[in-house]
Design goal:
With 168 residues, the chain is of the alpha+beta class. It has helices at residues 10-18, 55-64, 110-140; strands at 2-9, 34-35, 41-42, 46-50, 71-73, 76-81, 84-90, 96-102, 145-152, 158-164. The strands form 3 sheets. The chain has a 6-stranded mixed beta sheet with strand order 4-1-8-7-6-5. It has a two-stranded antiparallel sheet with strand order 2-3. The longest helix is centred in the C-terminal third of the chain and has 31 residues, at 110-140.
């Protein structure tokens, strides 16, 4: 059996939470899976909160997790991580959707799917952080700032201290 996930942008997930559904609570939707005509289980899509937007950063995140075969072709991103094939594409609304299936034919559980997509989201966040930090470094001087220090904590949090240049 395979499992399909709808990866909600953080803003939409927050709106869903206010509406009472909640993105993480939507995991339970897959418990409504039905049997197909040949007796196989057909997954009901479930929703998971995410911040993923940039397909290049997403491909890099998948590669970081061991998806050496991460490929983006015509807006469809595929990769294999830990024996699970991930096929990701955008819905008509521009939201990422992910379909996960095991290469060995065994079932992908909701817990496995959620754990894997949480790892992908965390790897994606690290790439976003690197890109933003690089942008700050490259634009600080032009914006009238001087980068005084930069530190990285144990949890990979980057702290930058910038001074405003005195042009007087």
């Amino acid at each position: 059996m395979s499992i399909s996930l709808i990866l909600l942008p953080a803003a939409l997930a927050a709106a869903a939470a206010v509406g009472g559904t909640g993105a993480l609570g939507a995991i339970a939707l897959n418990s409504r899976a039905t049997s197909g005509p040949r007796g196989e289980s057909e997954a009901v899509p479930i929703a998971v909160q995410t911040r993923m937007k940039d397909p290049d950063l997403l491909a890099a995140a998948l590669a970081d997790l061991g998806g050496a075969d991460a490929v983006l072709v015509d807006g469809v991103l595929t990769a294999t991580i830990d024996g699970v094939e991930i096929v990701m594409s955008r819905t008509d609304d521009g939201v990422w959707g992910a379909h996960l299936s095991r290469l060995d034919g065994h079932e992908v559980t909701e817990a496995e799917a959620t754990a894997l997509m949480t790892r992908v989201d965390a790897a994606y966040a690290r790439h976003v952080q690197r890109a933003v930090a690089e942008r700050i470094r490259s634009r600080a001087d032009q914006a009238g700032f001087e980068l005084v220090s930069e530190t990285r904590d144990e949890d990979d949090t980057v702290t930058m201290v910038l001074n405003v240049r005195d042009y007087a």
